[in-house]
Input
Amino acid sequence: MTADSPLPDLDPVIHAQARLRVVAALNVLGDGDEMAFNALKDLLGMTAGNLSVHLTKLEDAGYVRINKTHRGRTPVTYTALTKRGRLAFDEYTKAIRALLDSAGGVQ
Output
């Protein structure tokens, strides 16, 4: 990055702290793997309502897939990153790195 090039844009959908934590947690799963809503909620220390709101925003952007099913008679919700979500997270991390590198000054 040079003085002539603009600072990178950060994806506003991912940039919110809670959504960044959700995407980062789901990114460690392999392609096709899912995490149960309650496991994600516990991992992130979020309330069900707060996590649900952020997952909806990520789903609306096409970044996560939500699969509501049943385990026996118990309803279970699974979440996973989509290919688009993985790409968006990869682009976001590249933009953050570029932004941080540009703030490092001349060495």
Summary: The chain has a mean pLDDT of 91. The beta strands are 35-36, 64-71, 74-81. The radius of gyration is 16 Å.
